């Protein structure tokens, strides 16, 4: 009864509290609810009042005639009707109801879960009773609601399937959603993967859009777990299939076998042909008997052609193919009237350093060597004479049908100018020639077309020292020349330019005599000396030790001074001069004159002493003291003169 008393006390206290509040309310004051305003009296009347016969100790008795064992049994049965769920796990749920906003799922928990209908767009046929896997985001939020997600469940299941496919090298299906830079975007069970353009097919793909909207098979080649990136490949599936086909195809190959193939790729060096699972290379030289600059001149992508197997490698699975071998060699069609000495016409197809190739008919070419292009011996570069595409006539010089070789000549179409050279260009005759080429030792000139000659560097000038012909002339200049030597058999013509004038060194020999002094200007200073410009356009050389001036310094560039000729060589055209020799000789002459003057003074003193001695011998004895004194004086002067 203690509990009953406690309850009655609480009820009385609550009633008193409400009455106190009611006493403070005015007549118009009320408490508003959602529907109506009720008075304090209504609230009082709604309070439950305890009944007299309520048993407040019923919880301490065996209620409902259940013993402890039955109570435990029923509690376990009740607890077993609920599932224990954990945040982050994926569980199955039964669709209970569907409305425009949510799908209600029974997951066996104390409350149902709601999932947005937007997560079921891929299942338009969803109905009540269907089982769906969902992800538990939270067993209970702030409002006590169970939070589920079908999208996250699908994503996690997809990641598990993708990882399992990578680990076990399994094939998975995917839907190509769209094109992106460098490849395609593929939907694999709700996860977006990247399909690079190079992994779409074994052949280069030029239009990616044709794959958009298709469902294809793929293999997972890479997964970045940090960024949730997946890379897939369709090409590896094709390669796997082709590998087995390659083995079968290569095992049946034979040299000379003709196969049909498709042009798969075109490069500068050849064409790759798809033979139905295995590729072969058709080299550019095996496409046509004639010369071509690029395979695309003959073939195009995706073109079907017949090719012949030239060679193959079982281990490396390399196959060499030929196209031109399916047609007869053009040399077999070369007419019999073409013989040595025949005139032929064609087009220049190649120009090299050693000559040019003339194509007479497609696949038949002849070499025009550089020496057969012109009678001129000065022609060194065929590109100066011919260029690709020129249509010319030539003469057949040699012909070997078995070896399929032919040499041609162009100069043979005109007469040999050297047959008349002796009459037209005798030794001593004077002509004008054009500078064609220069070397370290001379200048090559052309007197007329086909007649070349050489002017040696030593025959360019009488007076000027030339280190290289380009100091004297340049290509294209016209020079007056005289024929010095003529060798018709060896086609050699020696010419001179300086010989058109008299040798000035005959005159220089009389002007620049030894020890003569001339004014000169320093043109260039070197380690060994300097070059001096002397009168009449002549150059001389002054050695370093002869460049010293009287004050100890040396002559400098562009300085003008007097120089003495110390060497003149007419044959070698060499003049050696000295500046130091001028003042050194003047100084030496002054020293010599001073030395001669002193010698004369000493000689006069000796003569005087001798005269005194002679007079002393003739003197008397009385004069001996005086003479002795005079003798001593003279001897002192004589000794002094000798010392001086």
UniProtKB/TrEMBL annotation:
Pfam families: S1. One of its GO terms (molecular function) is structural constituent of ribosome. Keywords: Repeat, Ribonucleoprotein, Ribosomal protein, RNA-binding. Residues 88-151, 169-235, 256-324, 341-411, 428-498, 515-580 form the S1 motif domain. InterPro entries: NA-bd_OB-fold (IPR012340), Ribos_protein_bS1-like (IPR050437), Ribosomal_protein_S1-like (IPR035104), S1_domain (IPR003029). GO terms for cellular component: cytosolic small ribosomal subunit. It comes from the Bacteria. SMART domains: S1 (SM00316). Residues 1-12 have a biased composition (Basic and acidic residues). The keyword Repeat applies. Residues 1-43 are annotated as: Disordered. Gene3D superfamilies: Nucleic acid-binding proteins. One of its GO terms (biological process) is translation. Binds mRNA; thus facilitating recognition of the initiation point. It is needed to translate mRNA with a short Shine-Dalgarno (SD) purine-rich sequence. Belongs to the bacterial ribosomal protein bS1 family. This is Small ribosomal subunit protein bS1. It comes from Pedobacter endophyticus.
